[in-house]
Design brief:
Strand order of the largest sheet of chain A: 1-2-4-5-6-3
Shape of chain A: elongated
Strand content of chain A: 35-45%
Largest interface: A-B, 36 and 36 residues
Distance between the termini of chain A: 34 Å
Oligomer: homotetramer
Number of helices of chain A: 3
Number of strands of chain A: 6
Largest sheet of chain A: 6 strands, antiparallel
Radius of gyration of chain A: 15 Å
Chain lengths: 147, 147, 147, 147
């Protein structure tokens, strides 16, 4: 049972469609593992293309996963005809982004008519061990979709 | 004349080498425009590969440019034998990342033995107009380089 | 000459009145040094009442000064009939809040119909020396004033 | 059973003593409800002295409670002879700070030799109803205590 009551009966369809329209997610190989009202989890394989100077995944790429997870989680609770926009986010890097696969879990902590606040966590999976590597708190805005 | 006195006489060489070792920067087409003690500017062309659902560059990719700019700016002031690590950052998105080219300018506002604080700004260039699109405040840590 | 064009011709009067209605500012002894469209500077004397375990002013009290400075700076650019609300802020503590007097300078970096982003800096004054002790980036929201 | 293993066998004593040395906490009437390794909860009564222009408690005062809660939670896991210092924090204000009493709950999410990351939440209690009003993510640093 979802903790939040979505306003848009088609929330799963429109949230999934918004995710699918993000070319950056395809480029990064990020897919959606599951989605519910106010919650989403994404998954990304490791690729050397996204590494920084020590061979770990770049903090900006981890942030891309966290930000999209927050955006889609917030979007599930927005009314029909909305678009979602990131206002700001804050990320703490807790451990090196080192692993075969990464997941990004986001949840709404305060939905609102205009602004929605989400929290997200990034995990690295390496040899069957899951490590919390980063956190995000983000503010998302509902915009009326144009056209 | 630099505002800060670098501790490492080879700071330009090691900072440039650290930037060059970031595979993510090559993948994103990000290059270094200039570098000084405590300051750096990077440049990135637009590519559809990095866009979100509205065709603008994804906030995570803008964050990748801002974070690397902060990291390299901080690194220029760190002692010889250091490695640089991002502790945390906060980004405000001020306008859509819409343009032909993007620049990321970072400057140290407080260097320290362990922690260095930087501020950075991202600009979009479209049809000769420069627009401030994002800001970052970031905390970077000096680590003793292994091996 | 102000960088921003205020929408409310009475912006100085209403911004000053909003500051004056903050009982917390009176309790902390914070006064307004100057105000312009999109900019404000506040001043606070040291008091042992606000100290933490090492005798420096508590980070929350420094944050109170920074947040009010951001709020009033943002408010000067909001239309008539607005109220201002803090959405979020991020503070970096750069040096101990140690001094006889503290100032808080805020400026709008992006005004908006709904959201305004400000940056602020806190300085300590001790024996004629001014030290940057903290920075804030904050997001403020314009609300229609009730009643 | 605590989730974290404290390094200092006297952690409850020294953490409580550090809290007690904060004059700002006494001035604000903030008391400690409970403390464990890596976790703490503080409580503050409403007082008109701390209000902003709408009669709600000022965001800086709420931040003072959240920051001290994070600092004490982090401090319980630091080795003997440490002092704790706030590096930075980020606060989202989710609802007006309106109530008879406020609580601040903090927990360590990543302890470290030098840096510890905490999350905290502020709640308002009004007429028996508890409302989440603010969140904080903060970075704390262990310093060797002087003298």
């Amino acid at each position: 049972m979802p903790r939040f009551e979505p306003k848009n009966p088609d929330y799963l369809k429109v949230a999934t469609a918004t995710f699918d329209r993000q070319q950056a997610m395809r480029t990064l190989g990020i897919s959606m593992l599951w989605i519910e009202a106010g919650e989403v989890e994404l998954s990304m394989p490791f690729a050397a293309d996204w590494t920084q100077q020590n061979g770990f995944v770049h903090a900006g790429i981890i942030t891309a996963g966290l930000d999209t997870a927050c955006g889609i989680a917030a979007f599930t609770l927005m009314p029909s005809g909305s678009d979602v926009l990131t206002v700001e986010f804050k990320t703490n890097l807790l451990a090196p982004a080192k692993g075969d696969r990464f997941t990004f879990r986001a949840g709404v902590i305060k939905p609102g008519r205009t602004l929605t606040v989400c929290e997200a966590r990034a995990f690295a999976l390496a040899d069957g061990v899951v490590t919390l590597i980063a956190t995000m708190t983000g503010t998302l805005m509902a915009m009326t979709r144009r056209g």
